[in-house]
């Protein structure tokens, strides 16, 4: 009798182990994108009707599905729900960790980070503070110039911003944005961020950098516009010649990355350059031109690696998969095309040189 009882217990344990093993083999945990033995965790499973039972829990659908590559978009899980005590962490490209949160409807939220690329970017989600990542999703990083005007701030009279300080270009500058639903608060911060590249071009020490410079306005009323009179910046801030403005909720500390934010287009920061520029902008520009000419002599020849230019204006405007608008010469925005005399519209290739970036 004792032998029979032990044998029965052994059979039960084997059955339980087999059941657990089968469940693991038919679960989407760590298996998103895969087709399993009896069900699927592939994106095609829903129209085919063969998804594993936990497909929506581990293969995440999010809203919105895309945002500007500058970061700052708050997205949330559509179908999966979580416990209020879960410690949410989103990991982009297997290296960029962003702390998230669970809202009152048990949806997990994360803020998209700054990404130096366009296209589909994989991310993972952890509920234990980043110890394990068993859920997967895809974020679409959009070129900022192609991003909807509903979700970015607008430089009113962009040409004036970029030529401020040159002869006869003075006065107020105005930034516009939509009040809701971007910022539920009553006030916003207006920040200036700068962009530059350091190191020798096309070498391993070549780096791109976005950096918070200073605040133009803190606790600005969330009316949808901000007007100010620019003053020449002091060094080292005036050394930054390209940048963008960022809006954040006023309850956020200034200069903090990866918070809900709205960006302007990147532009030449003529309006904040040092007094030397305002005294003689032509001489300042000429010295920069000479410096660029010297640098250009050392650059490799990458023309053979980039996409051929579109042949017609219609093609340039239609082929948004390979080209995006040059903000300084945009027929839709009424640009003056100062840098391209005789042109009415210019585009830039989205795909860089495969070898030289």
UniProtKB/TrEMBL annotation:
Keyword vocabulary terms for this entry: Disulfide bond, Membrane, Signal, Transmembrane, Transmembrane helix
InterPro entries: AMOP_dom, Epithelial_Barrier/Signaling, Ig-like_fold, Somatomedin_B-like_dom_sf, Somatomedin_B_dom
Subcellular location: Membrane
GO CC annotation terms, alphabetical: membrane
Pfam families, per database record: AMOP (PF03782), Somatomedin_B (PF01033)
UniProt domain AMOP: residue ranges: 281-357
Signal peptide interval: 1-24
Name under which the protein is recorded: Sushi domain-containing protein 2-like protein
Organism whose genome encodes this protein: Callorhinchus milii
Lineage: Eukaryota, Metazoa, Chordata, Craniata, Vertebrata
């Amino acid at each position: 009798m004792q032998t029979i009882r032990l044998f029965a217990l052994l059979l039960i344990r084997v059955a339980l182990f087999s059941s657990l093993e089968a469940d693991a083999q038919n679960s989407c945990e760590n298996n998103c994108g895969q087709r399993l033995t009896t069900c699927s965790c592939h994106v095609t499973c829903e129209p085919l009707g063969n998804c594993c039972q936990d497909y929506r829990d581990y293969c995440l659908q999010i809203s919105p599905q895309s945002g500007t590559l500058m970061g700052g978009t708050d997205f949330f899980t559509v179908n999966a729900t979580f416990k209020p005590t879960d410690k949410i962490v989103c990991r982009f490209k297997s290296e960029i960790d962003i702390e998230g949160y669970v809202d009152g409807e048990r949806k997990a939220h994360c803020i998209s980070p700054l990404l130096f690329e366009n296209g589909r970017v994989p991310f993972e989600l952890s509920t234990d503070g980043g110890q394990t990542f068993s859920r997967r999703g895809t974020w679409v990083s959009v070129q900022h110039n192609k991003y909807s005007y509903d979700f970015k701030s607008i430089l009113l009279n962009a040409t004036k911003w970029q030529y401020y300080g040159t002869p006869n270009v003075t006065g107020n500058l105005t930034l516009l944005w939509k009040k809701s639903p971007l910022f539920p608060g009553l006030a916003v911060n207006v920040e200036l961020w700068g962009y530059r590249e350091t190191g020798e071009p096309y070498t391993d020490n070549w780096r791109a950098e976005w950096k918070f410079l200073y605040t133009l306005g803190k606790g600005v009323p969330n009316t949808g516009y901000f007007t100010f009179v620019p003053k020449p910046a002091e060094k080292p801030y005036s050394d930054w010649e390209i940048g963008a403005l960022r809006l954040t909720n006023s309850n956020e500390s200034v200069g903090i990355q990866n918070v809900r934010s709205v960006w302007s287009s990147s532009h030449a920061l003529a309006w904040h350059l040092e007094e030397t520029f305002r005294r003689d902008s032509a001489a300042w520009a000429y010295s920069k031109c000479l410096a660029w000419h010297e640098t250009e002599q050392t650059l490799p020849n990458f023309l053979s690696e980039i996409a051929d230019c579109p042949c017609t204006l219609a093609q340039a405007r239609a082929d948004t998969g390979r080209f995006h608008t040059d903000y300084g010469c945009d027929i839709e925005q009424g640009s003056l095309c100062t840098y391209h005399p005789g042109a009415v519209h210019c585009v830039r290739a989205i795909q860089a040189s495969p070898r030289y970036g």
